[in-house]
Amino acid sequence: MTSAGRPVVFIHGLWLHATSWGPWLELFQTAGYLPLAPGWPGEPDTVEESRSQPDLVAGKGIDDVVGHYAQIIRALDTRPVVIGHSFGGLIAQRLLGEDLAEAAVAVDAAPIKGVIYLPPSALRVASIALRSPANKNKAIALTPEQFRYGFANALPDTEATDLYQRWTIPSPGKPLFEAATANVSRQSPAKVDTANKTRGPLLLTAGGHDHTVPAAITRSTRKLYHKSPAVTDLREFNDRGHSLTIDHGWREIADEALSWLSQRLS
Fold it and tell me: What angle do CA 71, 5, 11 make, to 5 degrees?
């Protein structure tokens, strides 16, 4: 199957609204795909509604999000490509490992079960929710300073401010708690079937300046797939931070994803 008519499901991560994928949708549509970017379960249609009604997403965990996107995928005529950023990248890997997707691109994906070492910057970002057990069942918003550190540290201040105002929303704290306890939980929802031999190809990307998901996490994730002969590729963007899907350089990442898909799904 060529790109013509192939669906692509985009999955955002914590603290960004689904509409932040807008430029990607246009690019992939121009390339012949059928793109869609559904929000997380309970997420309103707009940034403004999401900010005014944070309780709609509170308490949602990884399994809730996976189940939500699995239901959307099963309603499609054919298995899609899934492209996820941050926690969306973890969700994309779950869907691929469960044979619900034809291929997956995980952009600076949150750590899956089995990733042991978390660099200090990743712990600092996660602590936004983890500092209080009560946050597990709440929706947590970022301050401008937290967004600057976790997402926009590689950007000018003016662009960081603009992206914060345009795209950030409160997000459930529960996925961060689930990821934090993944390696001591036998039934962790952050567990991915990395040994699946028949799954489609996977592209992992890493940003060299990413504070939220440092490149060391992505490299560790890549090693967890060593038991599977299925394709797992890694691309590193040494000068990019966690905002790489929404900032002025988004096209570089999107073009790499398109190029990789044309090679792996031809």
Answer: 40
pLDDT in tens, 75-89: 999 999 999 999 999
| Distance set, CA 69 to CA 44, 83, 230, 263 (Å) | 15, 12, 23, 26
Is the pLDDT at 212 greater than 50? The verdict is yes
Q: In the predicted model, is pLDDT for residue 3 greater than 80?
A: no
Distance CA(12)–CA(214), nearest Å, equals 18
Element (H, E) at 145: helix 144-150
- Say what the pTM is: 0.97
Tokens encoding 209: 């300046």
Is residue 190 within 8 Å of 113, Cβ to Cβ? yes
Nearest C-alpha neighbor of 208 from the set 249, 263, 157: 249
Cα–Cα distances in Å, from 110 out to 35, 46, 62, 93, 97? 23, 24, 11, 10, 16
User: Given a cut of 80, is residue 266 above it in pLDDT?
Assistant: no
Strands, E assignment, the chain: 7-11, 34-36, 81-85, 103-107, 139-140, 171-172, 202-207, 232-237
Taking each helix axis as running N to C, give the angle between helix 22-30 and helix 250-264, from 0 to 180 degrees, rounded to the nearest 10.
Answer: 40
